[in-house]
Amino acid sequence: MPKDVKPATLAAQAGGAIDTQSGGVVPPIQPATTYARDRDYQLLNADNVYARDHNDTTRLAESVLAGLEQGAAALLFPTGMAAIAAVFRTIPTGGCAIVQSGIYWGTTKWIRDFAARRAITVIEVDTSNAEALELACRDHPANLVFVEIPSNPWLKVTDIAAAVRCSHDIGATLVVDSTAATPLLSQPLALGADIVMHSTTKAINGHSDVLGGVLVTRAENALWQEIATDRHDAGATIGPFESWLLLRGMRTLPLRVERMCENAMKVARFLQGHPKVTDVYYPGLESHPGHDIAKQQMAGGYGFLLSFLVAGDQQDALRVAGALNLFHRATSIGGVESLVEHRYTIEPHTGIPETLLRISIGIEDADDLIADLAQALG
């Protein structure tokens, strides 16, 4: 496939792969766990020894993801958290990490626990405040800086270019969790970030039926080789069937993201004008404090994730969530179906407001979603 094709073409044609043996336009699944040698004990395929990280289906999915992110290489993992863990294991014992505060709680919890075991200093800072991030970098010579765009569930927007400058000034690796932006809306590597991470469980797969995570690097340097070796030795690899499902999901990624962003903007504007909603967190709204930065570094939309505060107390928020008919009450984001979550029920210890509802917007008709929210709010 030509290197200059647009993301929609790359995704739709799964990187241009066909099954040359059968002529099928869909790439095959290779489920073998080991690979044969000839009578002279030479590999029949020099690229394939053992399926821990030698699988043609997985390599194809990785090549498509690297292409979508304009990266040098990609590595798939069995979950998004496994991908995050792999990059954090490069921090030496006694090292330091600067981590955005108020991000996905599962990430924060794991980082805190891991850092405590390895005597790693973790500095948590609101990286959407560029001055606060610059000050943290100046005061703490970190090995790694980790940010999330937009953040989950607060939808804060970090200036990636500014984060690149202050991270690289201290020799730190900048890692960006771009799950809520997808490779279609944001290109952190093009802005200078070192590694971008996605939970492929979310929009990249898009059908709520595959667990996975990916790291994509701007350069195949020594750090990247360390991550690749660790993945191989620790066995943190994804299966061929999951890789194939990711390839299938990515074929419609541009269409799904376009529709989800359109829907999310309509829903956000509706909620912003509703008398029983006290605040809406969505970077596409001009009132959002990160709107200008999001406008600069996001193309084609502002994502499918948003949060809002219900007027009243915790019971009022739970009543609204319970009255929704089209929004499934479930934990995740980025699927074709719309979801709602009462975050305080999940993480009451984090300071999350009792009235915050996080919604992931799917590909349904926007008017139907708005009508469902309207009847639930009353």
Globular, elongated, flat, extended or rod-shaped: what is the shape?
A: globular
Q: Strand order, main sheet: write it out.
A: 1-7-6-5-4-2-3
- DSSP helical segment count: 14
Instruction: Give the biggest beta sheet.
Output: 7 strands, mixed
Quaternary structure annotation = single chain
Total strand segments: 12
- Helical coverage, percent range: 25-40%
**What ranges have pLDDT less than 50 throughout 5 or more consecutive residues?**
none
In whole angstroms, the N-to-C terminal distance is 52 Å
CATH topology of the largest domain: Aspartate Aminotransferase, domain 2
Please, how many domains? 2
- Our estimate of the beta-strand percent is 5-15%
CATH 4th-level superfamily of the largest domain: Type I PLP-dependent aspartate aminotransferase-like (Major domain)
CATH domain class of the largest domain: Alpha Beta
Order of helices and strands, N to C? Answer: HHEHEHEHEHEHEEHHHEHEHEEHEH
What Rg, in angstroms, do the CA atoms define? 21 Å
Q: Quote the average pLDDT.
A: 96
The structural class is alpha/beta
- CATH architecture of the largest domain, by name, is 3-Layer(aba) Sandwich
